[in-house]
Amino acid sequence: AQSVTQLGSHVSVSEGALVLLRCNYSSSVPPYLFWYVQYPNQGLQLLLKYTSAATLVKGINDFEAEFKKSETSFHLTKPSAHMSDAAEYFCAVSDQAAGNKLTFGGGTRVLVKP
Amino acid sequence: GAGVSQSPSNKVTEKGKDVELRCDPISGHTALYWYRQRLGQGLEFLIYFQGNSAPDKSGLPSDRFSAERTGGSVSTLTIQRTQQEDSAVYLCASSLSPDRGLPLHFGNGTRLTVT
Fold first, then answer.
1. Which of A66, A75, A95, B66 has the most CB atoms at less than 10 Å from its CB?
2. Number of A:B CB contacts under 8 A?
3. What is the pLDDT of residues A53-75, one digit of tens each?
4. Is A71 left (phi over 0), alpha (psi -120 to 50) or beta?
């Protein structure tokens, strides 16, 4: 069975500092991996995805993530945090053996301090 | 264009009552998913519809939960005899097809509170 673990349910960063959100997965087949962001009282929006092409994936709002097979990781980074980045971030894996549905991690809430 | 629409946005109900939650997916999207998000937790898969195929109900937590999708478009999630542990945000998502790698487009959710 596939699973996703996000280390740290809450992360606090200063405006302008590096944002690093950790995600580790387990999958029985080569995975497709996603990061979604959820702003208050809204649904989830896709930030970026890995689908077996380049291992370094760039997304919206200067976010990027690197797929590392040896570490079974897909950590999300952004060089410089903005106040507007305050939100909850979810890592997810799509394992074809699981019927094309996503399995989500528990989420990481990001607080940006001025 | 229009996104995924869910109604109602908020629902408060008494324990033991039945509730219906509605999802209007993006036009032309053949795949539709329901997820549950409990406070401070990630998303739990509930059910998945793809075209005219039999739905994947593997995530439904009990027989009090059911869902249907009429005409390959609108979907309704029904919870019978609601319990307090059913309180959560119920999110609907759709995608153009079930192909891996396609993004899911989420609605804003229905916040269900069972008193």
1. A95
2. 59
3. 789 999 999 999 999 999 999 99
4. alpha
